[in-house]
Amino acid sequence: MHALGEAVRGRELTDFDVYVGVSSGALVAAALANGLDTIRLGSTYIRDEETLIPFSPGIPLQPAVGEFARRVASLPGALASIGRQYARNPVRNAWPAAVSSLERILPTAVFDNAPLERYLRAAFSSRRCTDDFRKLRSRLYVVATNLNTGESVNFGDARHNRVPISRAVVASAALPALYPPVEIDGQQYVDGTLIRTMHASLALEAGCDLVICINPLVPFDVSRSRTRRHINLAEEGLPTILGQSLRALIHSRMQVGMASYRARYPQADTLLLEPDRHDATLFFANVFRYSGRHRLVEHAYQKTRSDLLLQADALSALCKRRNLHFDVDILRDRRRTFSTAARERSARGRRATRQLREALRRLEGMLPAARAAG
What we know:
This protein is 48% helix and 10% strand. The chain is α/β, with parallel strands linked by helices. The longest helix is centred in the C-terminal third of the chain and has 36 residues, at 338-373.
């Protein structure tokens, strides 16, 4: 996103009219709507101490101890139920009775999302930010799925804008089996991608004529991989198989949705950014391992810059239609890194601070003469 933001001149990513966030993208959308730019987000991810409220890798990865304890407490009752069913028919009911009774004691989540909610509440309640949808300058929609009805809910609309942004974000990102459902107004909510991958229609229906869609999950195409070693995903273990299956499902639904947007909103430009399907580095990146954060951020930044440069002609024409400028020169700068961009922003901030201090000093020097003249 930062690579896109610095290549497209004329509009900041923190100055859009509408933001739509789904699943983990809800956190990014909420941050941008609050004025937290991509340098701030990237630096927070790379170095925990970058913000006034430090982000620790342990925040989203704390075990769901309470959930484990509740399930363990239900074990005696489940065993008693198995015993009763076995006593009634010891031959036919043994295995089915065990399966049907023990499934209720399996934990519904591995991690606890309460620490992440507390972090987001503190971050969005800090200076210049808000945890209230109604106080944002732009419109923000956070999409989650009602577990009991199977319907998607748009937090931030007129019916659901009283819910804290932090609460809506953790609900939208509550991926089943990893995080527990989040209760809001008596209803249970889980990950927003279960119904639809891309909810760009919320922005299009609001009248936006330029919509930028970010999809970070694409299925990995082994046949196009540039890695030298032979890869067979079936041999990589259950998490890899489940990850590839989820990506394929999400991507196929997203393609259908994007095609419908073009047909339903022909007056709007819809730009989709997603990784290359042969990018083994991104596919095999362990999201639970934070030791390679800087390398992963730099890889994503440089790959996006290369992709944008390949599409420079089409993107330049799109930007021109929307009174924007597509900066090809910045994409051709091979020396540029994400760290370079971060240092540039810090330097601009220091210059602005110096200019403000100089203006205040001059104003202070003018006050005695102004008082005397008055």
